[in-house]
Amino acid sequence: MTSTPTNPVLVHALRGAAIESQHRGAIAVVDADGTLHSALGDTRRPVFPRSAVKVLQALPLVESGAAERYGLTDEELALACASHGGEPQHAQAAAAMLAKAGMDVSALECGAHWPYFDGAIKAVATAGQQPTALNNNCSGKHAGFVCLGCLMAEGHDRDRRAFLSGYIKPDHPVMREVTAALQAATGHDLTNTPVGVDGCSIPTFAVPLHNLAHAFARVGTGVGLRAGHARAALRLRRAVAKAPHMVAGTGRFDSRVMQRLGQRVFCKVGAEGVYCAALPELGLGVALKMDDGNNARAAEVVMAALIEELLPLAAADLVFMRGFSDAALVNWNGIEVGRLQAAPPLRSASVARAVGAG
Amino acid sequence: MTSTPTNPVLVHALRGAAIESQHRGAIAVVDADGTLHSALGDTRRPVFPRSAVKVLQALPLVESGAAERYGLTDEELALACASHGGEPQHAQAAAAMLAKAGMDVSALECGAHWPYFDGAIKAVATAGQQPTALNNNCSGKHAGFVCLGCLMAEGHDRDRRAFLSGYIKPDHPVMREVTAALQAATGHDLTNTPVGVDGCSIPTFAVPLHNLAHAFARVGTGVGLRAGHARAALRLRRAVAKAPHMVAGTGRFDSRVMQRLGQRVFCKVGAEGVYCAALPELGLGVALKMDDGNNARAAEVVMAALIEELLPLAAADLVFMRGFSDAALVNWNGIEVGRLQAAPPLRSASVARAVGAG
Known about the structure:
The structure is a homodimer of 358-residue chains. The first copy, chain A, has 15 helices and twelve strands. Chain A has helices at residues 54-57, 59-63, 66-69, 74-80, 88-100, 118-126, 139-155, 160-164, 173-186, 209-221, 227-242, 253-261, 297-310, 315-325, 349-357, and strands at residues 9-15, 18-31, 36-40, 46-47, 195-197, 203-205, 207-208, 266-270, 274-279, 284-290, 326-330, 336-342. In chain A, a hairpin with a 5-residue loop joins strand 5 and strand 6. In chain A, the strands form three sheets. In chain A, strands 1, 2, 3, 8, 9, 10, 11 and 12 form an eight-stranded antiparallel sheet that branches. The first copy, chain A, has a two-stranded antiparallel ribbon with strand order 4-7.
């Protein structure tokens, strides 16, 4: 993973009529057979997908039977795929998942941080409290790991807490299962790719955008997944479509888009400018990474533009998505000072052509 | 201000041993005669300097005599040049500046926002309060505008509050004075350049990095400024060196660097990845802009690397600066997961050569 060649500019930040900043990146749109339908930039360089692949990491939770064994709800399964805002209902759902498996917050190894959602920060502070691991944006994913581990320990009649300890390590049976699901879905050799430690301390494996998009085409269609993973993917997509607030939170892109478009889109942000999505009705998966990675602002614009270009949308839905792909920047006095806009390469025929060519 | 040509990669974000993200940008290092000493990328494209030029915008406050008339302290003058964290002492100093001119928070037209500093957010929330315009990161700059306006109104025997109203507008006498100072220092024709509205609602004029660096060489030396501006620049630099906490705040780059290096560096961040600095002992000014602009993370790395490369530093100071130019990235469990590093072009002889060639 060396310096990239020069990826195209995908987003402009305008102030007044002038380009103030710009964001480069790469995009892959792939079908479930692994055929590339459209691409911009370098899609073969491995990138760390970070939280964008939480749905892949949650496949073993469902396939193993742990989700059924502990009676996890749609809300809780959506939380297992989430980078949530640490709002009270997120933290409560994570606690409920743990309780169903007979565990509590002390089992979580993701670390604590202040909630992402402003309102939740203020709620915790006003109550004179400190955030816990339940407020960590990954607490649902980790609660899912704990549920999976509890089932694995039951199966082997082991002390569950002792078995769970260190579940974030690459060689722990829980993490081996999670990594195997990632490898199966992406088809990328994870034993021979850069590996890092994620924000929540589990390993993150670098995967080319082409393979990430392929994995999401598989998640959206079931094609190319083994039967257990295909059923799990369908279950997780349905859960997120029923409880989109749980996958992100108040005012956030993934929740808002899936509240609006339901199962037509499954999209998930990752840190450092990564986004993945499945567009099941088209049989396509999408993966993108902004070079600068800094935060989600440019990645959201690109994902919105891709949804617009690829998915046939009613006029009102198009207007809704355009609110993200051509968004007003407003200052502290509420004055519109600029716009955040998808750049010309995203509006080219070559991106939309994917659908016709499918 | 069209899309830039391809500026070089100046910062790498590593996760493990792999490059996860990268930041492109441009740099100009210029002396007080306007001679370019070193450059990377496109330094002729006008960029919005945003808050990086607050010291230039504060020149009229001092030159006019308003700072002396109202007895502004070092802390208050530093605050006039600040993008502060909205901490209690920042808000209190802004209130004190206004009180000295017989005004209060209602005179500020910058808008209110939650403080930048986490501890200040929690303090406001815990007290059950809402932030005011005093917490706005620009409140000191605006309090300075109000002081300048009050003196101008006195001089003309006008009702001060009526005179001040709309001081954020380009054609208001206060803002005309501020813009004239910016034009004089940068030597760039502001009547013929892109203009936008800044976060705090005053105009921001696009200026090439070359001219911004030239302006900061002038601020650091007084050379090329008219006598009143030269005296004002010296007064403001001294004030900031005496009260560096006021120019940014707890844990923030500008405060920490100037607490350490005193008057050897005057540096100031701007939104969207801009940084300007004066290195008075070298007679040099520095200006940089990261293409992606997203937040300050990459701009700080570049500014730290430039200070290291340009300024002769004692070993302990070099280690201190290296903590910014090659910084550990730590996750929620306190594990080092990567590094944020100045890229090779910044470590090249061509950057450091500026000094020898001076």
